[in-house]
Structures are given as C-alpha cells and as structure tokens.
Amino acid sequence: METDRELEELGYPQMKHIINRLPKDMEERCFARGIIIEDKTTGITDEDIYTEILSCRNLKSLVVTGVPDMSDRTIVELARMIPGLQGLNVNGCKFVSDVSILELVAKAPPLEYLYVGGGVVLTDPVVCAIAKTFLKLLELDLSDGPLVSPVSVRDVWTFSRKLTRLSLARCPLLTDAAFPCRIKERGKKPAPEDKPLPHRPWTWIGGLEPLMLRHTAVDMRVLDLSGLTEMTDEAIAGVMVHCPSLVTLSLAGCTKLTDDALESVSTLGVSLQWLNLAHVPQITDSGIMKLARECTDLRSIDLAFCRQLTDLAVMELAGLKNLVRLVLVRVQKLTDNAVDYLADHTPSLQRLHLSYCDRITLKSLHHLVSRNRGLEHLTATGMPAARRRGLGRFSDPPPETWPPDQKAVFRVFSGGHVRGLARFLDKERVRREQSERQNIPFVARSDDRMDLY
C-alpha cells in the first residue's frame, strides 16, 4: 500500500482525519486515514460505523468513544476489512467484549495504540493475548476493568516493552503482585515480627511470586495508577525502578501510600513534570519536601484533599522554577503565609486551586493576584474570604446543574477576570487607606468608585 506522500505525488488528495461526522462522499471514504467520533450528541450509531467501515479501506485509526452502542460485530468487521489498522479507541463502549478483541488479536494488525478502558469488560486471557501479540504497542488503556487481575498485567510489563503510555486506573483487583519488584529484594527474608498478624484468608492472587524483570521500560512516559486502593509503597518502589523516565504519573486515590512512596517517586528526578497525588491522605510535609528537592522540573502537582499538609510543603514547592499548576483543594491547614510565599517566589504559576481552604483571607488573595501577573486561573470556591461583596461579578458562572447553595459559593476567576479582580482590590485598598487617614469608618462596596461615601 502506498504511503501518504506517495499518494500525494501521484496527484491523489491528502489523507485526512474526519472528526465527529461520517465521510460525506466516496472520495473521503477512500482517503480517510482516521475517523474520530467523540461527541455523543452527533447521533451516530453502531450501524452507521459498521456501514462506513466497508468503504474506508485505508483507515488507520478509529476512535468511537462517542458511540455508546458500539458492538462486537463492528469491531470484528473492522479486524477483517482493515489489515493496516494502527489505532483503536473504544473507551466506554460497554457492548464491546472479549469476542471482538480476540478477533482483532487473531488478525494481528500493526496496532500502535489500543484503548479498551472506561468499563469495557475484558478478561485476563484477552489482556494476556494483547500483550503477547501486539509487541509494537505504544499506548494501552485498561482503566476501569473490573476483571483485569495481576496475572494479565504482569504479562503487559513482561511483553509490551515499547509502551510509552499505560493506564491501569481503577482496576479493583490489582494489588502489589501486578507490578515489578525491585531486584535487590530477591531472596530477602522478612524480618521476624514480635507479634504474629491475624490469619488472612489465602487467595490465588496472594500466592503469586514477585515479578522479577531484567529489562526496564525506558520508553514509558505516562503512567496512570489512579484509584488502586490495594497498592502499597512497595509496588511504587518497583515501578519507579522499572520506569525510570516517567514524565506524567497519577497516583490519585491510592489511599495506602505514604511518604515512602514519595521517596521512591523522587528518584525520577528532573524527568518528572506532572504528578497527581489527590486523595492520598497519609502523605506529609516531609514527603513533599523530599519530592520538591529532587524533582526540580515539576510543572504540575495535585495535592487535593491531602489534609496533613501545611504551609511548609507549599513553601518548598514554591521553589520550583517551572511550576505552572498547583492544586490545594481542601488542604485546610494552609494559611496566608503559604499564599504570600507563592505570590513572592513563584512567578511561573498560571493555575492555582485553593477551594475550601478556610484559613486563607482576602488579604493574601489580593497579594497573590497583584504580584503574580502570569496567573490565569484561580479557584476560591467555598472560601469564606471569597464571599466578600463585589467579588462574585469577576467569577465565571457556576454549572447549571449545581444546587443553589453550591452556586452561591462558586468562585472561579479566569483570564481577564483575574486582572479585573486585582484592580478592584487595589481600589479597595486605596479607599481603606483614605478612610483610615480621615478617621472615617471603612465600608466594603461592590462598585469601582473611589469616593468614600
């Protein structure tokens, strides 16, 4: 089959991607390189996709996350008719099952990315077949797989050696047995315990031997392990040794992780840029300080609902020269000291989330928006200080589906509204200073006039 450049040299139209619609004529069907249906409001059905596949023989990729009734019949036809398929995304298509994915494996197209997460129910034999068949796979998404167990994930680590992106988020059966173990742990006997642990029922997953791998996933850049509530610090230590070049890592909702896990993550050094630690309640200032000192190129870090953190952790993060996004939602021990320090030491910051941080006052928010001219997005929903008169007119409108009590406390400032908020608070400060000089009681107002009365 001719390449895109060869077809263009022969005078044929350029290969194209068709987004949120179907090909409109035979020419588009012949030269469609990819069909992407992500918008569920288009009304495109499984029957429509099935019909189009018969004509789109040069198709390289198919994304149908916006076709909820996508079925096995269409995927089977796709495997049969499109031998050169390089990418398939059926995330959230709950009518796709083992039957069609096994047919895809049998035809063995040169797949480079495969997204079968979002509730697609696949069993271990199928996941093992994917790992052993598509050896050139670059991206794999198995998120929300209720039946994906450590047995099949171990095969992914073993055989899919070229992966650059892997998502195992919210797979409830995954434990430490699903992840590579540190080589130095081989043969190490557990330390004797003073008191024996209570009897724990044995399961076949618990009987798996540690996964020892001699190779490393040097190409892995994005890893999503969100919501793996049975994963411990030991698993993270093994993963960090096996994936030394991670750029993006998500550990949100991994409730058993502690500061020891952050010490392992810190070994990534300057390669790590995006980190999600939301809802990891056991981490403390010590772990964040270690992380900030080692991973000096961090650009985004999410610490929402990490309730043990204090101003010390934020002050350490403020020293990151490339930090552009920081999420501190419901980190309730934070005070004005942390916000003032961010304002004075983090000029690169563009997005800051402070919702439900009750101890932060309007004075520190004013200092932040005045000093940090690069700030483009600030969330202060639920903060008592943000309910001050006049601030609401600079906020984005709340979602229509929210109840009235939540709409009343919604405060999200973005774009030019951040600068407008800064100018409004600057005027208020001037009026306050004037009232103090003239011994006149200061009254907060919502307008922009400068007169005191």
UniProtKB/TrEMBL annotation:
Record GO cellular component, one term: cytoplasm
Keywords annotated in UniProt: Ubl conjugation pathway
Xref: Pfam families: DUF7885
Recorded superkingdom: Eukaryota
Keyword field contains Cell cycle: no
Residue span, F-box/LRR-repeat protein 15-like leucin rich repeat domain: 231-373
PANTHER family found in the cross-reference section: MITOCHONDRIAL ATP SYNTHASE COUPLING FACTOR B, SCF E3 UBIQUITIN LIGASE COMPLEX F-BOX PROTEIN POF2
Name of the protein in its database record: F-box/LRR-repeat protein 15-like leucin rich repeat domain-containing protein
Source lineage: Eukaryota, Fungi, Dikarya, Basidiomycota, Agaricomycotina
